[in-house]
Amino acid sequence: MTRWAWFALGWIMVGLGIIGALLPVMPTTIFLILAAGCFGRSSPRFEAWLLNHRWMGPPILRWRENGAIPLKAKIIAITSMAGGFIMLLLAHPPLWVSVVCGLFLSACATFVGTRPS
Fold first, then answer.
1. Is the separation of the CB atoms in 63 and 33 below 8 Å?
2. What is the pTM of this model?
3. Distance from CA of residue 101 to its chain's centroid?
């Protein structure tokens, strides 16, 4: 991928991270971590901006240092996943959709829950 493609992808990830901060069922931190990685390949200036940002920087730095997710963020993430799954079930999707989504969300919740705090 070219430098400009990484740069554009970085801004898309920042945008998704901001949307995630506003919507309870969409993650935030993972998009910011991905944005920092994209900027690391395209623009050290924007990577530094993101890492030094007052609100966005600390979770990215915690992740880079030791793969840590704060306990409060774990609780919010896992609760949001469970809530989203319950909302899915209330829509009565086909059984295979429920099973696939349930397995995917269970894997994600397990990953989040097993990271250091």
1. yes
2. 0.71
3. 17
Higher pLDDT, 24 or 52: 52
Give dist(CA 10, CA 31) in Å, integer. Answer: 9
CA dist., res. 34 & res. 39, Å (int): 9
Side-chain-facing half-sphere of 76: CA atoms under 13 Å? 14
For residue 14, CA distances in Å to 17, 34, 57 come to: 5, 8, 12
Token digits of residue 26:
């969409």
Boundaries of every domain in the chain: 3-66, 71-114
> Do residues 78 and 109 lie in contact, with contact meaning Cβ atoms separated by under 8 Å?
yes
- Residue-wise pLDDT tens digits, 55-86: 889 889 988 898 888 888 889 889 888 988 99
DSSP state of 52: T
